[in-house]
Design brief:
The protein has 93 residues and is an all-alpha fold. It has one domain. It is built from three helices and no strands. The protein is flat. The N and C termini lie far apart (55 Å).
Length: 93
């Protein structure tokens, strides 16, 4: 079973490598941000698979922190690209 999990982690790392290429060559900022989200999601998947292989609880904590950072990055992207901070829910309308 360990070999299957390691193989799945290797396949996920290949998708992360493909998304790094898209970050470098992406035609627009939104494409680059979606690729960065794929890096975060793939990284979380790899960490979860490696936590299953190694049995280390600390790896699960790292995956949780990465998930939180990926969510915050997408919110920051929306706020940064919206005109005049229109994506800001705290701004009075």
């Amino acid at each position: 079973m360990t070999g299957v999990l390691e193989g799945a982690a290797a396949l996920l790392l290949l998708t992360v490598a493909g998304s790094l290429f898209r970050i470098h060559r992406g035609p627009g900022r939104a494409d680059r941000m979606m690729s960065a989200q794929l890096v975060g999601t793939g990284g979380i998947g790899v960490l979860l698979l490696l936590a299953g292989v190694s049995g280390e609880a600390a790896v699960l904590d790292v995956a949780l922190v990465l998930a939180l950072l990926a969510a915050l990055a997408s919110v920051a992207f929306v706020k940064a690209t919206s005109p005049d901070g229109a994506g800001d829910p705290e701004e009075p309308s």
